[in-house]
């Protein structure tokens, strides 16, 4: 993708997955589109480091297999692989294996919790169908699962929810984080009566890493959509029927703008043109997230039946995974890479401190000998990259949409990875609809 010219029908701000999908959909409809990205590379949090004998994910390792994503992969002729890990969590200081396939988003799997529960908790779980509908307009994820399944069952599901969202489940909005569960209760009165529906969404990955999806989109846009790397957008200004898009390098012009960037970045861009939108965008919390990868000789590590371990400690939520055990082709034979994901305030620590923290944690959790030597370490920081749909999120989204209606042709498409492709497609459709209307409407 080349550097952009100056005048376009649509400028997409942000070259993460959302931005690239939005540009891809818009150019299919014949629009003149440009993409501006503050970083030197596209992909946002989706980035794969490839070195001889080693492939590391710098961010998310998989993505929910939504119908929108499946359509996109078919168009891009990109093959994906389902990912299903054997996971374990800590209970009373001991590691306990999760039943494979258990998912907070799929009521059909909740029966798998029974062997991990005592008699009274099993009976409580089985009585889910007798629990009435919630009365709150917006209920927390923790409150919903506790009310419907019981506190013991929720204690088991909580680490899986934190693995997905990172944040405090007592603050997460059920209707925003798990909208299909919220709809299932409201439509059927219970989750048990919704089990005939397909609520579960499996997760997909790619043989050459998540960067493969970004590469495929880049290839599809090559020669069609200019890409301005290292061009941070700092503001917008309306002039006539066009938006002036200001970067640190200069300015461009577009009839429509899609802000496919994190909410804090969108807030900064809009602070002068619409302070109320900035206020609403700044009300969306974002958590810091870092991943640390430590390479060892495989014979220096103990056997481990759990490729993924989840636990919480003061200062953050942790996820420890073994790269070669899960993706044998990604690490040279004879070696293993342990990945520690850190979410919360601990993720803000310096790279050197994070590396030491990771080494301390893997030694403590896996019982690795002090003599085991780290052959290499990599730290990837994604500060403020995990948006949190906290209580009241749906109301804030509605207010934001109403506010942006006062900025004709400007649309926001930031948010979580879970809805990335569908939200990007919707933003492209909105831009197309606006442009079609502006052509039909005399000035």
From TrEMBL:
<keyword id="KW-0274">FAD</keyword>
<dbReference type="GO" id="GO:0004729">
    <property type="term" value="F:oxygen-dependent protoporphyrinogen oxidase activity"/>
</dbReference>
<comment type="function">
    <text>Involved in coproporphyrin-dependent heme b biosynthesis. Catalyzes the oxidation of coproporphyrinogen III to coproporphyrin III.</text>
</comment>
<feature type="domain" description="Amine oxidase">
    <location>
        <begin position="19"/>
        <end position="431"/>
    </location>
</feature>
<keyword id="KW-0350">Heme biosynthesis</keyword>
<dbReference type="InterPro" id="IPR002937">
    <property type="entry name" value="Amino_oxidase"/>
</dbReference>
<dbReference type="InterPro" id="IPR004572">
    <property type="entry name" value="Protoporphyrinogen_oxidase"/>
</dbReference>
<comment type="pathway">
    <text>Porphyrin-containing compound metabolism; protoheme biosynthesis.</text>
</comment>
<dbReference type="GO" id="GO:0006783">
    <property type="term" value="P:heme biosynthetic process"/>
</dbReference>
<keyword id="KW-0560">Oxidoreductase</keyword>
<dbReference type="InterPro" id="IPR036188">
    <property type="entry name" value="FAD/NAD-bd_sf"/>
</dbReference>
<dbReference type="InterPro" id="IPR050464">
    <property type="entry name" value="Zeta_carotene_desat/Oxidored"/>
</dbReference>
<keyword id="KW-0285">Flavoprotein</keyword>
<protein>
    <recommendedName>
        <fullName>Coproporphyrinogen III oxidase</fullName>
        <ecNumber>1.3.3.15</ecNumber>
    </recommendedName>
</protein>
<keyword id="KW-0963">Cytoplasm</keyword>
<comment type="similarity">
    <text>Belongs to the protoporphyrinogen/coproporphyrinogen oxidase family. Coproporphyrinogen III oxidase subfamily.</text>
</comment>
<dbReference type="Pfam" id="PF01593">
    <property type="entry name" value="Amino_oxidase"/>
</dbReference>
<dbReference type="GO" id="GO:0005737">
    <property type="term" value="C:cytoplasm"/>
</dbReference>
């Amino acid at each position: 993708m080349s550097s952009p010219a100056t005048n376009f029908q649509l400028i997409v701000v942000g070259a993460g997955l959302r931005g690239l999908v939005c540009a891809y959909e818009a150019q299919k409809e014949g629009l003149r589109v440009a993409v501006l990205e503050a970083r030197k590379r596209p992909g946002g949090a989706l980035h794969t480091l490839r070195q001889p004998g080693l492939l590391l994910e710098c961010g998310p390792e998989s993505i929910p297999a939504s119908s929108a994503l499946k359509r996109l992969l078919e168009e891009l002729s990109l093959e994906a692989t389902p990912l299903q890990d054997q996971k374990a969590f800590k209970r009373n200081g001991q590691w306990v294996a999760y039943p494979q396939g258990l998912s907070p988003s799929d009521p059909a799997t909740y029966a798998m919790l029974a062997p991990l529960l005592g008699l009274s908790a099993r009976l409580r779980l089985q009585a889910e169908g007798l629990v009435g509908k919630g009365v709150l307009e917006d209920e927390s994820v923790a409150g919903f699962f506790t009310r419907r399944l019981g506190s013991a069952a929720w204690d088991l599901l909580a680490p899986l929810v934190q693995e997905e969202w990172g944040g405090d489940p007592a603050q997460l909005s059920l209707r925003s984080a798990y909208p299909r569960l919220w709809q299932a209760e409201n439509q059927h009165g219970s989750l048990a009566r919704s089990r005939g529906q397909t609520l579960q969404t499996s997760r997909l990955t790619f043989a050459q890493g998540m960067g493969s999806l970004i590469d495929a989109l880049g290839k599809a846009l090559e020669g069609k959509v200019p890409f301005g790397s290292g061009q941070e957008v700092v503001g917008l200004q309306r002039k006539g029927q066009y938006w002036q898009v200001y970067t640190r390098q200069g300015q461009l012009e577009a009839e429509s703008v899609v802000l496919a960037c994190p909410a804090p970045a969108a807030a900064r861009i809009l602070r002068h043109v619409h302070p109320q939108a900035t206020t609403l965008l700044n009300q969306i919390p974002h958590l810091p997230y870092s991943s640390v990868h430590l390479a060892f000789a495989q014979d220096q590590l103990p056997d481990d039946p759990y490729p993924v371990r989840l636990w919480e400690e003061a200062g953050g939520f942790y996820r420890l995974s073994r790269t070669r055990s899960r993706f044998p082709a990604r690490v040279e034979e004879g070696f293993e890479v342990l990945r520690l994901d850190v979410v919360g305030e601990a993720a803000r620590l310096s790279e050197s401190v994070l590396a030491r923290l990771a080494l301390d944690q893997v030694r403590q959790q896996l019982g690795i000998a002090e003599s085991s030597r780290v052959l290499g370490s990599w730290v990837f920081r994604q500060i403020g990259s995990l948006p949190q749909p906290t209580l009241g999120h749906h109301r804030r989204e509605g207010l934001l949409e109403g506010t942006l209606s006062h900025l004709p042709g400007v649309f926001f498409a930031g948010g979580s990875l879970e809805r990335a492709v569908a939200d990007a497609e919707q933003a492209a459709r909105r831009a197309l609809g606006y442009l079609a209307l502006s052509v039909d409407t005399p000035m």
